[in-house]
Amino acid sequence: MKANFTQRRLAAALAALLALAGSAHAADVFLAGIKKHTVLVNTVPDNGDQNPYAIAVSPTTAGKLKTGDVLVDNFNNAANLQGMGSTIVNYHPDSKQMSLFAQIPRTLEQCPGGVGLSTAMTVLKSGWVIVGSTPSNDGTTDTKGAGCLMVLDSEGKLADVWSGPDINDPWGNMAVIDNGDKVTLFVSNAGFGVGSAKGTPPVVNLATVLRLELEIPAGKPPKIVSRTVVASGFGEQADKGVFLIGPTGLVYGKDDKLYVSDALGNRISEIWDATTRTTSAGIGRTLTHDGLLLRPLALTATPQGHLLATNGSNGKVVEIDPATGEQLAARWIDANKAQTPPGNGDLFGIALTPQGDGFYYVTDDNNNLVLAK
Questions:
Q1: What is the CATH number of the domain that holds 38?
Q2: Least confident window among 9-23, 34-48, 154-168, 241-255
């Protein structure tokens, strides 16, 4: 009888410990604290551009920018043709109003193929905005150009254009190490060897991640001082519905590791020695794959260092612990049943709020900027 009582006490204590561990684990899950989704603004500007892709939160006040402003760019034009959007809008959280930050000429001689603003965009502490172009002349990859990276000042005026053989359709959201006058920029390129989207386009394993080291002289635009391909061989594919599929999300994390969302591999890749390597790590090590992931696209990091990945093939965001590779949770943030699965093809950019208490995201199906917190 006494032994049974002791066993019951031990079992109860073990259950209490497990419950405590479970609650502590739940408390560590960023998505568990997200309670509400608020539509902030429709991102279509006066010229009718649509299909919001990139999100970048301003870390500074300069020119047209205020600290905390949310920039969103558009990939499609008013006719909903992909690779032809040329506008960046600015949502001001203080006034809850949207204004036009920049409208870049569609035909830009220095940018091979012209302008179609992609998910590659960042705002630097110095007030410079860098945005990628993945252009088309008819909305398909049949007329795709190699594109470029464009440098805009804090008034939204074009200051410089970067191109070259190592830049071909800057596609994914950038990872940035910003030290003011010196910046390390990582950007994925998903256009090498990509052809027509007709039929069943082949997967081409040529996508790269390029590291650019920048210097920013006082009062002058950033200049590139070195260019290094730190990862290569990721799958990329022309696609009628979404133009391109390729590595999209980039986050720089602890221990000099860069995390890359490999959409076609349905995995998150880890690139080690990201800031110091002089050669490519190939497609890196697999941090996590499959499970809750369904064509992972944009990435951002939570205050505790977890990764948030938007799914391209459903309307979920997935939280991942990069220390273990564990997929901690998934949350529907676009459950539009007009798509199968719900929210399929609707999610692109994601960015944490400056306070770290939520995140911004865009929904392609209705051209909205949304705040989750």
A1: 2.120.10.30
A2: 9-23
Domain residue limits at 21? 1-33
| H or E element in which residue 8 lies | helix 2-27
pLDDT class of 367 with cuts at 50, 70, 90 = very high
Say whether both 17 and 161 belong to one domain: no
**Among candidates 261, 253, 313, which has minimal Cα distance to 283?**
261
pLDDT at 232: 98
Q: Predicted confidence band at 345 (pLDDT cuts at 50, 70, 90)?
A: confident
Residues 6+ positions from 99 with CB-CB distance below 8 Å: 64, 89, 90, 92
Q: State residue 113's pLDDT score.
A: 97
Distances (CA, A) of 190 to 163, 286, 288, 311, 337: 14, 19, 21, 18, 29
Q: Tokens at residue 178, please? A: 């910003």
SS3 content of the chain, % helix, strand, coil (to 5): 10, 45, 45
Residues 58 and 18 in one domain: no
Q: List, for residues 277-318, the tens digit of each pLDDT value.
A: 999 999 999 999 999 999 999 999 999 999 999 999 999 999
Cβ atoms of 168 and 189 within 8 Å: the answer is yes
| Residue 3 CB partners (closer than 8 Å, separation 6+) | none
In this structure, the answer to whether residues 158 and 274 fall within a common structural domain is yes
State the Cα–Cα distance between residues 164 and 148, nearest whole angstrom: 8
Is there a single domain that holds both residue 228 and residue 187? Answer: yes
Do residues 148 and 161 make contact, with C-beta atoms less than 8 angstroms apart?
A: yes
Phi/psi of residue 156, nearest 5 degrees:
85, 15
Are 46 and 21 part of one and the same domain?
no
Q: Please tell me the total count of domains within the chain.
A: 2
Question: Please, are residues 247 and 234 in contact by the beta-carbon 8 Å criterion?
Answer: yes
What's the number of CA atoms in the CB half-sphere (13 Å) around residue 209? 36
